[in-house]
Each structure stands twice: as C-alpha cells, then as structure tokens.
Write a sequence for this structure.
C-alpha cells in the first residue's frame, strides 16, 4: 500500500494525507483506525466497507468537521476569493436543502456565508446549475424536484465555490437504479472536465468499480484499510465498460476483498 504510506509534502502531488488516524467517541467506541491514506490531486477514490467501519467518519475528519483522536490529517489547498475554509465541497447522503427557498438560493448559500458579493455570486450560481443540468430550475423549490434533481442541487452547491476536493458520502444510495446510473455517468463527466480530487463513500461494489481510479476497501470497525485495488481501464468509462468482462473481473476482486468484513455474508 505504497500510496497510503506516502509522506505529505507541499508540491508532492497529494491532496489528502491521513497518517496514523484514529477516532474514538465518548462511549469509548473506536470508530476508526489507525488509518493511513494518501489521495493524489485529481484522483477519484472510493471508500468501500460495511456499515459502521468509519467511512463517513474519515470524510468528516478530512473536511475538518471533526478532529481525530490521534494521528494527523493534512489537506493541500490554496485560498482563493471563492474558496473558504479548506477548499472542500461536501455532498451528503441526504440533499439537506432548505425547503423554504429556491434552488438558486440553496446553491448560493456557501457564497453568501463566504461573503461573496451578490453580483459576483450570481454568475457562479448560474455556472454551477448549468454543470449539473439544472439551469432552468433556479426559481424552483425543493418540493417540486425529484430525488435525483435534489441531489444535483446538492452537488451544484458543493461545486459553487470551485473546491479543489469533493467529498461525497453515499450521495446516490437512496435513488432508483436508473437515476443512480445516470448520475454516476454525469459525475464522471464532471470529474473529467473539472479534474477535482474526489473521495466517494459507497456501500456498492458495482458503483465503486465503475467510478473510481482506486477502490479502498475498509475493514469492519475500527475501520482500517484492508485492500486497495487500482481500476485501470483504457479510454472513457461508459456503458461499454459497465458491460465488459474487465468490469465484472474488477467487481469480483473488490467483492472478494470486502467479503471478510461481512463475516460470510454476500458482499455484492
């Protein structure tokens, strides 16, 4: 696991470095670690593992929403006028939209909190909505949207500050399969276009293989890295890859690596 042991140095090409990270709660439950993980700038990495293994906890530590009990979490970023905090965008499992205001105002919220002038924010809100295919829905309200559209709004809100790192915590888990496949394709297109660093949490072997350059398989609590599998495919991914023998072969490898964490239960 050479990638995960890499030292974090400015200019070393790393976006995120977790070294010897643990997280314990007041109940003395150790949720995570020790965890060593390095993610390169522009890389798409999926964290895959059973419920309670600390995948979401790892994202919260990277985002600075929680502090590790021990170890170090380092994030490479530079400050910019539209990049508050650690230049991180976070997409949660639930869209968490404000129901009393419009789609456009929901997307605008991070810019408003960052003190970006309204005139300048307008252009960025329009651009973010265009990127997720919702340019015509700025005046709509959340209750008027489908589940997939609400998740697109959440993604636009995460992108509106032009973050360097995008953290996604099972964002498509509650969606039907057709919508999920479509959003997987759209997310890959965004990643190819914007070249953000993406760390994506999922329970789905199929989704992790389809989206990622690297799948990090975590053990049962306390979560550690059980295996890392590079997903190497020629060209852009699409339906041809999803139907290929290579795809199913990778799914089998990832499933086999995940199986011990489920104590004999089927991993797929």
């Amino acid at each position: 696991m050479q990638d995960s042991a890499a030292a974090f140095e400015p200019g070393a090409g790393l976006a995120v470095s977790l070294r010897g990270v643990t997280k314990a709660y007041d109940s003395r439950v150790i949720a995570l670690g020790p965890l060593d993980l390095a993610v390169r700038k522009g890389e798409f990495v999926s964290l895959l593992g059973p419920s309670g293994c600390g995948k979401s906890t790892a994202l919260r530590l990277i985002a600075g929403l929680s502090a590790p009990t021990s170890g170090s979490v380092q994030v490479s970023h530079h400050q910019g006028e539209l990049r508050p905090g650690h230049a991180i965008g976070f997409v949660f499992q639930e869209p968490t939209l404000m129901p009393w205001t419009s789609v456009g105002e929901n997307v605008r919220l991070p810019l408003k909190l960052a003190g970006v002038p309204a005139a300048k924010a307008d252009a960025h809100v329009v651009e973010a909505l265009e990127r997720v295919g919702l340019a015509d829905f700025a005046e709509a309200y959340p209750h008027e949207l489908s589940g997939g559209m609400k998740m697109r709004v959440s993604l636009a809100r995460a992108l509106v500050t032009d973050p360097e790192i995008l953290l996604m915590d099972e964002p498509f888990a509650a969606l039907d399969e057709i919508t999920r496949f479509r959003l997987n394709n759209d997310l890959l297109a965004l990643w190819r276009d914007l070249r953000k660093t993406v760390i994506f949490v999922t329970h789905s072997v199929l989704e992790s293989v389809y989206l990622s350059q690297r799948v990090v398989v975590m053990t049962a609590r306390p979560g550690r890295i059980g295996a890392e599998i590079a997903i190497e495919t020629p060209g852009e991914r699409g339906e041809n890859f999803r139907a290929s023998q290579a795809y199913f072969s990778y799914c089998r490898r990832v499933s086999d690596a995940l199986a011990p964490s489920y104590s004999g239960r089927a991993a797929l």
